TrEMBL record:
This is Manganese-dependent ADP-ribose/CDP-alcohol diphosphatase. It comes from Microcaecilia unicolor. It comes from the Eukaryota. Its EC number is 3.6.1.13, 3.6.1.16, 3.6.1.53. Its cofactor is Mg(2+). It catalyses: ADP-D-ribose + H2O = D-ribose 5-phosphate + AMP + 2 H(+); CDP-glycerol + H2O = sn-glycerol 3-phosphate + CMP + 2 H(+); CDP-choline + H2O = phosphocholine + CMP + 2 H(+). Residues 61-328 form the Calcineurin-like phosphoesterase domain. Gene3D superfamilies: 3.60.21.10. SUPFAM superfamilies: Metallo-dependent phosphatases. It is an enzyme of class 3 (hydrolase). The lineage of its organism: Eukaryota, Metazoa, Chordata, Craniata, Vertebrata. PANTHER family: MANGANESE-DEPENDENT ADP-RIBOSE_CDP-ALCOHOL DIPHOSPHATASE (PTHR16509:SF10), PTHR16509. Pfam families: Metallophos. The gene is LOC115473211. The keyword Zinc applies.
Amino acid sequence: MGISFCLSPAWIGKTALEGQGGASPQDQMRESGPTVPGLVAEEMSQTLQQPDGKSELYFSFGVIADIQYADTDDRLNAWGTSMRYYRHSLCLLQSAIEEWNKEIPCPSFVLQLGDIIDSSNSVHKASKIVLKCVLKQIEKMNVPFHHVWGNHELCNFGRNFLTNSALNTKHLEDKTVEVSASATVSCHEDVNPQHFYAYHFSPFTNFRFVMIDTYDLNVVEKDVSSTRYEETKEFLRMRANRSPYRWQDDEAHLLMFNGGFGKDQLDWLDRLLTFSDENKEKVVVFGHVPIHPESKKRACLAWNYRDALAILQAHKCVVCYLAGHDHDGGYCLDSHGIHHVTLEGLVESPPGSHAFGTVHVYKDRMVLHGRGRTTSRVLYFRRDQ
Ligand SMILES: [Zn+2]
């Protein structure tokens, strides 16, 4: 089945072709794909209509990041580099949902990549009421949202609250595949606030999506009684020993608003991806914080991104990593043929613009149809699978 797009003229963004289909794995071993300026809707549509059965659409899904809604006036970000439109972000979420619901075929699910409301809400003791406003919009979506937890979720609520909230979507997990991380952590357990928040699901034969918790280790939560707190303390102590007076340049991402991965989670991820390798699946991994230094500015990387990246690169099933957190967005194709896409933040989209996308999945590629500030991309799967 072929598809055609109706690209909303006001929201047509840039388009890029990444890891093109005819390229060898060697050709694909480059760190950043070329943007193709001026590639318009018609040309993009042609890339979707390919012969030899590759134009059959398998499924689609929505992506949105850093909604960061707050009932507060617009203001510059902490670095003073760009404006944040806090109230307007709710209107943009509403229009994204309306557009997804109208799409034919409708996306099968939406990945909300974290920071759904702004941390300033906690200062005004408005976190719960503001979250309710956002969830009221999300209820209008015809398909499920998968909610990632970012630093702003943890700042507003903490893990205990989130575990029992509508932002916990672990019930959408694929329960037919059992992959335990250790004797004490099973992916089938209900979310335990002491454990990481991560799960996986398979929306289509031979495709798997894996949510990872990029704040498994963090200093955003202040629960000193948790095992996470002890592991975080130890992690930071080890890094401090290496650089006692100041972080080295290559540790410039060890900032409070980033987080990292504990050993249990990395172990779980490794085992799950081994399962996917053995079953010849294609895997999309997603989390709040980027894990590749070329996909975003270093200040926004996960603390031990090297550990997570090494695991992803050790498994040929992995085709893409999706993140938010850095509102400018970003992209790179890594040396193993994995696409790293950092989505532009909704909260920094001014009136008249937007930042969300629909990803269409085919046999040999994913096509990100971005709106507004979200760059449209054609992401070819690695050829070594
Ligand atoms: Zn964030």
